[in-house]
Design a protein that fits this description.
388 residues; 6-stranded mixed sheet; 2 domains; 12 helices
């Protein structure tokens, strides 16, 4: 088993190293060697260091001294994002060049000039830098997305419910200023209830800084009539398979964590929170079947499910649930990854009506990896539910 793992890791490292080398060589040939102040040895030293730091930041970050972790993490993921878009940009230019050989649509006087490669290199560099700048600004702008839906059930005397729904806050990498901004945005919504569908923290990051700063206490400042209820996501479980201490601290701050369990609110509706599917891998135990969780519930009342990943929709529909709220996908976070998530999940973002079940998937309040969003928003979702 270890030999297979080593082989897989070796192949990944070889492929990643090859991609980095090809990008470095292409940029040097098209741009770097045209700049008289840039020394080839300095260029390749810096380029190699960025590649090495990206590997350390992704795979070995939790072994670094605490004061280095967040900095190395950010450098690593910004570089990985750069590699992704450098690769896409270079491939597009190479495809255009190949097509031109067949179709001849680029004027000869442009192709035969010495500065043509320089402009190609400059275009690629400007595109990647522009995308990183735009994506960073876009990720920091928190958007409010609204849905008005109806659930054809009676909810006691309750006729309407205003829900603030969020997911993927990844608190471990969030500074106090942005966390305060998030809490302020939730309170401005004036919700009846706050629902969170997982990835509250990020157990793969520097959770020591999260714990020292007591980030969960910010959630105690959130105001709502019925309180805050949350399920767990794949990043909420630590390397040993759980995050019990952190979960207890959230409970102390007033966040009710539902783990394959449900709660009846004001004798009017149910909130049901599921363990994330990842729980099965990290703990070695199956998460409960929905049918066993709902067996003692009054299904005549509205049932809202919190499930981090937008999966098990058939199961939720079969048991008579009314609304499932999910996150996880980040709506791809960076174009064109959203084209992939769209194929993986029945709904990777937005609203879906599936027979008796309604599904809303958020792109998340924050990002994972690089603080960059291209083609997707950072958002809090406001859902106004009308009951019979």
């Amino acid at each position: 088993m270890k030999m297979v793992l080593y082989l897989i890791v070796s192949i990944i490292l070889a492929v990643y190293g090859g991609i980095n080398y090809y990008i470095g060589l292409w940029i040097w040939k098209h741009l770097g060697n045209k700049l008289p102040f840039l020394n080839v040895k300095v260029y390749w030293t810096v380029f190699s260091l960025l590649g090495i730091v990206s590997l350390v930041g992704v795979g070995l970050n939790h072994y670094l001294p605490h004061f280095l972790r967040n900095g190395v993490y950010l450098i690593a993921y910004y570089w990985l994002t750069s590699v992704f878009y450098f690769t896409l940009s270079i491939v597009i230019i190479q495809l255009i060049s190949r097509l031109d050989r067949w179709l001849g649509f680029i004027p000869e006087n442009l192709k035969n000039t010495r500065i043509a490669p320089y402009f190609a290199g400059l275009l690629v560099l400007a595109t990647v830098c522009g995308l990183l700048i735009y994506g960073t600004i876009n990720a920091s702008n928190l958007k409010i997305t609204s849905y008005d839906i109806s659930i054809p059930k009676q909810a006691g005397s309750l006729k309407q419910l205003r829900v603030a729904f969020l997911s993927d806050t990844h608190l471990s990498g969030l500074d106090d200023k942005n966390l305060a901004k998030l809490v302020e945005a939730i309170n401005k919504i004036n919700p009846d209830i706050v629902l969170i569908s997982g990835d509250i923290i990020d157990a793969n990051r520097d959770t020591d800084s999260y714990e020292q700063r007591k980030m969960e206490e910010y959630f105690a400042q959130i105001k709502s009539k019925y309180g805050i209820y949350a399920s767990l996501g794949n990043h909420d479980y630590d390397f040993t398979g759980d995050s019990a201490e952190r979960i207890d601290r959230f409970k102390q701050a007033g966040v009710n964590i539902l783990r394959d369990s449900s709660i009846k609110i004001d004798n009017s509706f149910y909130i049901l929170g599921r363990e994330d599917k990842t729980y099965e891998r990290v703990s070695g135990q199956k998460r409960k079947e929905l049918s066993s969780i709902v067996q003692n519930m009054d299904m005549e009342l509205p049932v809202i499910i919190l499930d981090h990943q937008p999966i098990s929709l058939e199961e939720a529909n079969k048991v008579g649930a009314d609304l499932q709220l999910s996150g996880h996908t980040h709506s791809g976070q960076m174009f064109p990854i959203n084209l992939i998530t769209d194929k993986i999940f029945e709904v990777d973002y937005g609203y879906l009506s599936k027979e008796g079940l309604q599904v809303i998937v958020t792109s998340g309040a924050r990002t994972w990896g690089p603080p960059v969003r291209i083609g997707s928003p950072s958002e809090i979702v406001v859902i106004t539910i009308q009951f019979e």
